[in-house]
Design goal:
The chain is of the alpha+beta class. It starts with a strand and ends in a 13-residue tail after the last strand. The strands form 4 sheets. Strands 11-12-13-10-4-14 form a 6-stranded mixed β-sheet, sandwiched between helices. A 6-stranded antiparallel barrel has the order 15-18-17-16-19-20. A 5-stranded antiparallel β-sheet has the order 6-7-8-5-9, covered by helices on one side. Helix content is 21%, strand content 34%. It folds into 3 domains: 143 residues, Probable tRNA modification gtpase trme, domain 1 (Gyrase A, domain 2, 2-Layer Sandwich), CATH 3.30.1360; 71 residues, 2-Layer Sandwich (Alpha-Beta Plaits), CATH 3.30.70.1400; 83 residues, Aminomethyltransferase beta-barrel domains (Elongation Factor Tu (Ef-tu), domain 3, Beta Barrel), CATH 2.40.30.
Length: 355
């Protein structure tokens, strides 16, 4: 397994390390429920150094990148970020990504670990002037309602002025950093990008704050699912399009991009399944891979599911025929035919991410 600069720190803290997309990462420390609750109430830190980072400089390179993705980078102002996707010719997901504009002719792009090798190869062959900084970049996420105050207290005062999906360059202990007000939990939070050498000292400094605790992949998953945030490779892959995943709000249709023709054809034809939020009235949860039933008829498939600690019921996402994806529809899932109801996102509505 690949290792992040923080692996020894996770082991020293008693983290249970697992294989996640080929990386050795902690799934939990004190426990998923405790870490989830701490993030919602205070602030947690997550090691996300497994993700991919790319720097794109120059007009020619930016135009080449722009032609690949669903976002129009011309709409992204300096100091701002935008969510989008990289698709294949059939409109299926290769990956989702965040594009940040550092300057008029400089972008910083963040991708996921699972398809990283393919994404890197695709970028390298299509985007001149692109630099793959994944191997030399560490990433620590600070998430929770106290995260702003915590970052200011350790000297990252630039965080205080950032709006949601804003970003800025900063410096901490002599290390250059990029700070973005983004995250995957639904709470006020920041993602910190830094040289690998800065990861351990920053991690340790953050843990000195009484409001900070480490959190692993388990809590990250329950937190993101309560918000309805999708997981690359699980809630979508190359067999699914943004139309099916209901992410078409992030498509800039006025600009050309790979897969656009296929999406336009699919949109015109209709008749495709869509990803719908479902929940139960108990702790029982639909689980990844569960089939969904209407009576004895199989009508869909659950992609993500868990007990939602903050909403105190089972929650999940499932691909369903459009006519069954309306809130209030009652279906069943899994071998025990758990009763599920289609609802609306987010499941959890008290998040602080935009405050």
């Amino acid at each position: 397994m690949r290792q992040t600069p923080l692996l020894d720190q996770h082991k020293a803290l008693g983290g249970k390390v697992i294989d996640f997309s080929g990386w050795a990462l902690p799934v939990q420390y004190a426990g998923i429920l405790q870490e989830h609750a701490h993030t919602r109430a205070s602030a947690s830190i997550f090691d996300c150094s497994h993700m991919g980072e790319f720097r794109i400089q120059g007009r020619k390179a930016i135009d080449a990148y722009d032609a690949l993705i669903t976002s129009d980078t011309g709409r992204i102002q300096p100091g701002r970020a935008r969510y989008g996707a990289l698709l294949n010719d059939d409109g299926g997901y290769i990956d989702d990504l965040i594009t940040m504009r550092l300057g008029d002719e400089e972008l910083f792009v963040v991708t996921n670990a699972g398809p990283l090798d393919r994404v890197a190869a695709l970028f390298a062959s299509n985007v001149p002037g692109l630099a793959d900084e994944s191997a030399e970049t560490a990433k620590i996420d600070v998430q929770g309602p106290l995260s702003r105050d915590i970052l200011v207290s350790i000297g990252l005062t630039a965080a205080a002025e950032l709006r949601y999906f804003g970003l800025t360059r900063a410096e901490w202990a002599g290390y250059p950093m990029l700070v973005s007000r983004t995250g995957y939990t639904g709470e006020l939070g920041y993602e910190l990008y830094m040289p690998n050498a800065a990861a351990v000292p920053l991690w340790r400094r953050l843990l000195e704050h009484p409001g900070v605790a480490p959190a692993g992949l388990g809590a990250r998953d329950t937190l993101r699912l309560e918000m309805g945030y999708l997981l690359s490779g699980q809630d979508f892959d190359e067999s699914r399009t943004p139309l099916e995943a209901r992410q078409d709000a992030f498509i800039d249709w006025h600009t050309p991009f790979t897969g656009r023709a296929a999406l336009e054809k699919q949109r015109a034809a209709g008749g495709y399944s869509v990803l719908a939020p479902v929940w139960t009235d108990s702790r029982s949860a639909p689980r990844h891979g569960f089939e969904v039933y209407r009576g004895d008829e199989t009508v869909g498939l659950v992609t993500s599911g868990t007990y939602g600690p903050s909403v105190e019921r089972g929650i999940g996402l499932a691909y369903l025929p459009a006519e069954l994806a309306a809130p209030g529809a009652v279906l069943a899932a899994g071998p025990r035919r758990i009763a599920i109801e289609v609802t609306e996102l987010p499941f959890y509505r008290a998040g602080t991410c935009r405050k």
